[in-house]
Amino acid sequence: MQARTLTALRSLAVTGPLLVVLGACSGDRPGDLSRNMQADENALLPATSQIIISNAHLLDGSGTDIESGFLLISNGRIAEISSTPIVAEGALVIDASGKTVMPGYIEAHRHIIEGAPAEWMADKAQSEMQAFLEAGFTTVFSAGDPQTEILELRRRTAAGEIAGPRIIAAGRAPLAVSAAPGGEDDPARTDVSRPPLRPTVAAMPVSDEATEQRVTAISDAGFDAVKTVMVTTPEGPEIRTLGLIAQKAKALGLPTVTHAVTVQDTLAAVAAGGVATLVHTPHIGQLTAEEVRLIADSGIPITSTLGIFVPFFSDSNAPIFRDGEAFPWDTISSAGQGPVNARLLWEAGVVYGFGTDTRFAPSLTLEHELKSLHLVFSERDILKIMGENAAINIRMQDRIGSLRPGMYADLVLLEGNPLEDLYDLLQVTMVFKEGKIMVDKR
Ligand SMILES: [Zn+2]
Questions:
Q1: What's the gap in Å between 111 CA and the centre of ligand 1?
Q2: What is the 3-state secondary structure (H, E, C) of the chain?
Q3: Ligand 1: distance of its center to the CA of 360 in Å?
Q4: Distance (Å) from CA 100 to ligand 1 centroid
Q5: For 53-67, what is each residue's pLDDT tens digit?
Q6: Distance 336 CA to ligand 1 centre (A)
Q7: Which residue range is the domain that position 97 belongs to?
Q8: Which residues of the chain are under the pLDDT cut of 70?
Q9: Does the predicted model carry a pTM greater than 0.85?
Q10: Ligand 1 center to 258 CA (angstroms)
Q11: CATH number, domain at 91?
Q12: Which of 62, 292, 331, 408 is the 20 to 30 Å CA partner of 165?
């Protein structure tokens, strides 16, 4: 395993991702695959071009594993995969000897915009979207970001005005009237689902009418999903309201995804009925065999976010939390439960997919989540978690997450072989999104 030093999150928060943002490369000649593609419109090969990737290790963690294979990209899709050479007149041939080709990475739980939204859009959107691509991410699920800006960011990346991953965005609907106004702290640091902050009296219900109006507003705004946060209160309205939201959302063609971080709240979310994805592993409390069965029988996929409760280390060797502050050992001492619960759910057949619930640099979040997953999952398991399973978590498995003809040509080329060294997943040299070259560091 390659040891890599994690820079302190605190300094990351200040400096942002370390990126060289090049100017637009509009002067590049066709055929000159320059080192960095800045934006879709500057990608040198239109999506209609054919590209053959040759002599690559084709690998997706869910069946495709060809030691020296050939892949044809046509019209933005994977047209053919073969263990023998593919011939296509006029196609650009990329020799990928010694490299592994995998599906573009999928981040199934992320928060993208930080700080003042308008300023972020003006100053940071471009470099931060590029950072996702450079880390290998071609699809990102936003589980909660400022409404106007995330929808505009989704539009700009889809239109190619900003080079970035495909964005899928969720709008939030409350399960009860919040007892306390949200603080400035990282919600995982001051988690109300954990004693002593856990509510001890019933929360005020939101009226059915207001709930239905909220879901309709989320749909009308153009969101792709409804996000809910489950923290039950004694005799509270949360389970019933979540059921109503899921039903209403489904009628409007939207999936409902639910945050729950305790065993108790995860079971409550399952009991509500109609939830499409649980966006966290239950980290707090040990699942019994019966509870594992109940969750597995629901068929609801779960997003990992295992790295949240695993410390980073600062340059001065202090354990730090994802918000860059001191690691709160006193409040999250049950955190080690997450990986155990994750493996129990996996063994029971739960579709377990990759997501980080972070806001900092994508390459670092990837590395940190890999480290956490690797405690209880093999390299091959992790490839499935990052590929097909993450795609199922965001309901896109018919388009992304595995190497099959007909799928979007969202691809990552890596140095090495992640089955031998998991951290080769960080050695990204090329990234394609729907057949367009978005990153080229060869
Ligand atoms: Zn989240």
A1: 6
A2: CCCCCCCCHHHHHHHCCCCCCCCCCCCCCCCCCCCCCCCHHHCCCCCCCCEEEEEEEEECCCCCEEEEEEEEEECCEEEEEECCCCCCCCCEEEECCCEEEEECEEEEEECCCCCCHHHHHHHCHHHHHHHHHHHCEEEEEECCCCHHHHHHHHHHHHHCCCCCCEEEEEEECCCCECCCCCCCCCCCCCCCCCCCCCCCCCCECCCHHHHHHHHHHHHHHCCCEEEEECCCCCCCCHHHHHHHHHHHHHHCCCCEEEECCEHHHHHHHHHHCCCCEECCCCCECCCCHHHHHHHHHHCCCEECCHHHHCCEECCCCCEECCCCCECCCCCCCCCCHHHHHHHHHHHCCCCEECCCCECCCHHHHHHHHHHHHCCCCCHHHHHHHHCHHHHHHCCCCCCCCCCCCCCECCEEEEECCCCCCHHHHHCEEEEEECCEEEEECC
A3: 13
A4: 31
A5: 999 999 998 889 999
A6: 19
A7: 9-172+280-440
A8: 1-48, 179-185, 331-335
A9: yes
A10: 10
A11: 3.20.20
A12: 62
